[in-house]
Amino acid sequence: MTNQVSEFPTERTFQYQHSLPPLPVPSLEGSLAKYLDAVRPFSTEEEYQVTAAVVKRFGEGIGKDLHQKLLQRARTRRNWLEEWWLDAAYLELRYPSQLNVNFGGPAPYLEHCWPPTEGVQLQRTSISMWHTLQYWDLLRTERLDPHKAGNVVLDMDQFRMLFCTCKIPGVTKDTIINYFKTESEGPCPSHVVVMCKGRFFSFDAVCDGYILTPPELLRQLTHVKQCCEGEPAGDGVAALTSEERTRWAKAREYLIGIDPANKTILEIIQSSLFVVSLDDAKPYATAENYTPVTREALTGDPTIRWGDKSYNSLSFADGTFGSNCDHAPYDAMVLVTHCYYVDQQLKATDGRWKGSETVRPMPLPEELVFTVDDRVRSDVAHAKQQYFETTQDLQVVCYAFTSFGKAAIKQRKLHPDTFIQLALQLAYYRQHGRLGSCYETAMTRRFYHGRTETMRPCTLEAQNWCHTMLLPAASAEAKRKALLLAFNKHNKLMAEAQNGKGFDRHLLGLYLIAKEEGLPMPDLFTDPLYSKSGGGGNFTLSTSLVGYTTVLGAVAPMVHHGYGFFYRIGDDRIVASCTAWKSSPETDAEALFQNLVSSLHEMLHLATTAQL
């Protein structure tokens, strides 16, 4: 996932797109067998027998027909899931997406050249913007090497969605609009939008064919800041993007209706490269405690970020940074790859600009002023109220575990990601006295337009290991044996999911065919164990390895009684963000992290006393 950038690349970023294999449809028997295996930890013997009978009937009856229809669909599409996934997982959802769907996170620069410092916000923002614009140029000119897993080429299509992309609300379903083009495809918008104190400004990031330098960007940002200093805050129209989707769609229609100029402003925001948010907050995070800046990235001021934008770059008054991104157009690895590139560039230059200080003559940023009336102001007030009520209910913690990291785990011949996942299962088991249904992201980018598959870490083997760990009479040998079985099962399931042999997306496809054809919903999807084991988006633990870089993100939990858990694994540290809803009496993100720490220590001790 590292950014290989070539001055004279032998491979272009998107050159392999047309040669990628289509997304396969797994066998029905295989998917149903895996599903039965996955529900077992959540059932009594009696419940399991009922579900087994339901699955048998499905496999011999309606499931067979639905599977044939799915195979038919796959014959005419290189990715049978793509359109469905976008609609079902993102665009048809009606609840507010800014907090429930978007991901956000802290920038890692505070760990080295940019510790929290006041008075440097604009200067640092101009430098980070410049590196981001260089990354856009790499994609425009296809100089970013295609990603590979070993020798296997991975799909790069999602990288087209990082810049010049926005979600548009609809009354029943949203849409995504993307203006990005490579140089060989044609012209691409090159303006950025800067938001400050509820106001919008825009300027072109390219002048006479050259990207603005940091001194030039600084001049533009200084102008924006000066316009807002000591002035009343703007109308905060951006807060509407944090609203329930249908309400936002209707508010947007009304906004366009009262003045056609409002439509032009919306189009400028939608087509912009990205949004820069100049925020007065001072989160003061540290390399050990990222909580303040992570919380701010997820739940900060809704009037200075455009919740539907694929990339909001958040600049805080204490010189720290974060981001907030719509999840619909791409998965987190796109932003992680970009942020890691910026992090590496800043490290290499010690966070300084060493080029020319000359500022060319160019137009100052233009303020974009929406025409509003009392109804719009009322809509904005309502949006802000519901947003603040929800954000105040979200508990966010983000800490670094510094006792060990990837190096120590690999030294014991164990997979670092599996290590964290099993530690999390044990932490949850210890805290809640039972196992939690768990979703881990598996990447399917080896297929055309592949995004993700569900990998379910809560296996029978994991359950047995957790149970053994808490048995006072269990010997170290018994614990080690159980751990090894859990490791092997997890690794096997992850490899299958990444190779298009998972079962969750397959079941979703069968469900959607039944729904589209107006058929009665098959019993498999209404059976209590379906949702109890996490099916239908009901996972108690929503987790993802963000990677082995310096970049981390965070998400809200998938269900009210659940947790959001993102983590990155460094050589000597593991940094994790954990979220929970305060209004759920069951959950506590702080306690889960502390239990995770205990689990990590126990597991390393277990793996050290006898190499597995």
TrEMBL record:
Protein's GO biological process: fatty acid beta-oxidation
Key word Zinc-finger present in the record?
no
Query: InterPro entries, from UniProt?
Result: Carn_acyl_trans, Carn_acyl_trans_N, CAT-like_dom_sf, Cho/carn_acyl_trans, Cho/carn_acyl_trans_2
Q: Which GO terms describe its cellular component?
A: peroxisome
For this protein, the Enzyme Commission number is 2.3.1.137
Q: What is the designated name of this protein?
A: Peroxisomal carnitine O-octanoyltransferase
Which organism is this protein's natural source? Oncorhynchus kisutch (Coho salmon)
Catalytic residues, per the record, are 327 (proton acceptor)
Q: What is its main location?
A: other
**Under which main EC class is this enzyme filed?**
transferase
Annotated pathway = Lipid metabolism; fatty acid beta-oxidation
**Family the entry assigns:** Belongs to the carnitine/choline acetyltransferase family.
Q: Which PANTHER family match?
A: CARNITINE O-ACYLTRANSFERASE, PEROXISOMAL CARNITINE O-OCTANOYLTRANSFERASE
**Any idea where the Choline/carnitine acyltransferase domain is?**
23-596
Q: Which domain of life is it from?
A: Eukaryota
Query: Which reaction does this enzyme catalyse, per its entry?
Result: octanoyl-CoA + (R)-carnitine = O-octanoyl-(R)-carnitine + CoA; 4,8-dimethylnonanoyl-CoA + (R)-carnitine = O-4,8-dimethylnonanoyl-(R)-carnitine + CoA
Keyword list (alphabetical) reads:
Acetylation, Acyltransferase, Fatty acid metabolism, Lipid metabolism, Peroxisome, Transferase, Transport
Q: GO molecular function of the protein, one example?
A: carnitine O-octanoyltransferase activity
